Structures are given as structure tokens and as C-alpha cells.
Protein: Cytokinin riboside 5'-monophosphate phosphoribohydrolase
Organism: Streptomyces bikiniensis
Amino acid sequence: MVDRTVVRPPQPPRKVPMRRLAVFLASSHGHDPAYAELATVVGTDLARRGIGLVYGGGRTGLMGVLADAALKAGGEVVGVIPRSMIEREWAHEGVTELVVCDTMHERKAIMADRADAFAALPGGLGTLEEIFEVWSWRQLGFHAKPVGLLDAGGFWTPLLAALRSISATGLLAAPTLDDLAVAPDLPGLLEALEERLRDTHRPAHGA
């Protein structure tokens, strides 16, 4: 009897393209010009890589710098902004698509729906709230999209130290902390985020 069993060679992980990245960052410039320089580099590089930008829709501060850089480089820029902020003339009217919503909750939900992954650049309270919410959503299983911090110049290093301290108490699971992608530059962060995307879409054993 002839054994007709087909032995399949190991298949490399399927590459999952990142079509859009949601970026959270400050609506002010901060004191260090390096923050605006970073936002310019990120916006430009995302456009050159063909990765669309999803952001909070503002025209001021680092948000505006990021959007302008991506647009100048020919990238797609999707802004999501509550109606009340448009009434205060905070909206960027030159983006590829401006999505208007009613509340901050809707804003974050729409951004999460439009993006394949999330990243935080230098920012304050709003940036922290946004990145922690999507991270907690991932930990709870509400989505499988990776989350990361762009730790350029060590901006997020104090926060990471605090998170490690919390993890040491047993109140933040080590795998959850390890799941957070962290890199000092955009190429490194994109690589870490895309690796997590591939893990999410990797076929089950024997498939």
C-alpha cells in the first residue's frame, strides 16, 4: 500500500500589511523642538511607507505638525474630531478625510475602528488616556490590534519604569506589559507592531 500522505513544509508567517496607524500625541508643541521634529519625521515616513495616518483631527501643536508632514509627503490622513472642537476652530480642514463625531468616546472608537495598530508620541494627559484605553481594550480582548510607545529621546522611559514597578506588585500582569511595543524610533516601533500583527494572524498549528 502506497503512503500518499502529503508532508507540507513549514510555512513562514503570513505578512500582514499595516494599512493605517492611529497616532496619539499632543495638541501643543511642548518646550523641546525635538518633539515637533519627531512628529515631522513620523508623518513623512508613514506616508513614504504607504501607511495611512489616523489621528485626532487637530491643526495645532504636534498633531498639526504630524498631519502636515504626512500630507506634504503625499500620505493619507484621516482626522477624527468631536463637533465641539470644530466649533472652537481646532479642526484641520486640509486632511484627506475629516470624520466629525459628537463625543470623545465616539472619537476613540472611530479611530480604533479605522486603524490596524496604535502608537503614542510625546503628549500629555489626553495622549496617556487614549493609549491606555486602547491598550486595556486589547488586554480585555475587545480588539487584537497592537499598541506601542515611540520612546524617542527616552520620553516614555519614566512611564515605563512606573509600569514595571506596578507590574512587580502583581497588579499588572507581566505578559500584558511585555505585549506593549516600545522602540526609540519609528522603524523599530513599526517592526514590533507588525510582528504582533503577524502573531495575531498566524495560522493555528496544523492549519
Q: What stands out?
A: Residues 29 and 61 are 5 Å apart (CA to CA). The first helix runs from residue 33 to 48.
